[in-house]
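Need Probable lipid II flippase MurJ's 3D structure for a figure. Predict it.
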Amino acid sequence: MLRTLLTVGGWTMVSRVLGLLRDQMLARYLGAGPTQDALLVAFRLPNMFRSLFGEGAFNAAFVPIFTAKLERDGHDEARRFAASVMGALTGWLLFLAILGEIFMPWVVRLLASGFTVGGERFDLVVTLSRITFPYLVLICIAALAAGVLNALNRFTMAAAAYASFNVVGIVSILIGAYWLGDTALCSAWGLTISGVVQLGLLLWSARRAGITLVPGLPRLTATMRDMLKRLGFGLIGSSSTQINLVINTNIASYLPAGSIGWIYFADRLTQLPLGVLGAAAGTTLLPALARHAARNETPEGHTALNNAIDYTALLTLPACIGLIALAPGIMAGLFGYGHFTTHDVIASSQSLTAYAIGLPAFVLLKLLTPGFYAHGDTRTPVMIGFLSIGLNLVLNLLFFRPLAHVGPPLASALAATVQAGIFAVILHRRNVFRPSPTLLARLGKMSAASVVMGGVAWAAARHLTPGLVAWPGLARMSALAALIGMSGALYLLLLALMGIAAPRGMLRRLRRS
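Structure prediction for Probable lipid II flippase MurJ:
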């Protein structure tokens, strides 16, 4: 499992690094202001569907059933089931897209009710959202193709295809900034074009794997009803984090111009470890847990979940502490260029600190949710997801006035922590999650090493950050890289001294996986 996780995580890392470059360019050419706010609101729905379908609910509903059909009924029956699902999904999404295009002004009111109707930002969001909305259709069908590949244990292309999202995005920003003179408009078109590219790559890869995916006539069989039921509950159960982000965006629309940008860039940095670790581990964990559940292999299921938590915690815990300790320096080093001012750097670093507090919970949710789905339970995550959404909304309303742009991220972090805790308790009672004494001991040592590393990094950053914004770009990036590298080396040294991650032991675990 570790080797597969590293493959998916490696490609996800490539995608996230490209995404970071794309975000740097958006910050450089648009800064944090009304145009940036409008573009980011236009991206919110497509990004939400990309996270839900590409990394969440659709995989949770489709992959276990498709895997079971493949195991029990053979290749041809599994392909027919996929074609039927694809036909139903395509028809529904096209209908949804047409409605969205017609009623886009009302959709924007839901996403950013703080924007004045008929104002410059509102009109721009409507225009950009109509360009980006077709991406929903493309990425959801692409998620089906990726689910087929994952069920066939072909994880590479399913992970690599999403990197094209950012490659096309980077090209579109450059065209807008240096050729057509409208970065926001070109970025919106780039999003939709990237959906075409992703879908094409995944369909081609599925065909090479022996399954040609074309929409078929939907058949409302018992299996299809089961999948639709799981998908309906799973969309809500997996969407709590994304809905919380939508709530954050809506609340931020009432704050001063630029607040949406500050929160967005902070969230994107949190998404880097979350996507590489949480999404990759969740993607590879679900088929494994589904197989163990189908075979009544309870101890093996415990081991798989414990190993996934162990692998991800090794990097999640230092990432959490490191982001908190180095937030101002990271924002200055990565985004403090062009139209992104010193004030923007300070404000966004405050949002980043709040998001980072919840990073372990965000990752843990990605790992615990498959524990429900693998046993066919999509109802429980839905109910807890509603609780998390309600808690996030209440906390947002309490925080956003006194804490401004720090309120929405802090509300999401606290809501995710409560949700992860409830998930863990329920799965423990159901004998799905049994953290071993070895895992708990290792988590304690990892946490201690992370805190020591964070303290040293914070002390070093205090002397470096104040002058970082004034440095030339290359020197700034070099200083930030050196600081992060020093912190990482210290963390690895502490792990080795504690016997957690000795090089030989890690190699042995990789070979066994």
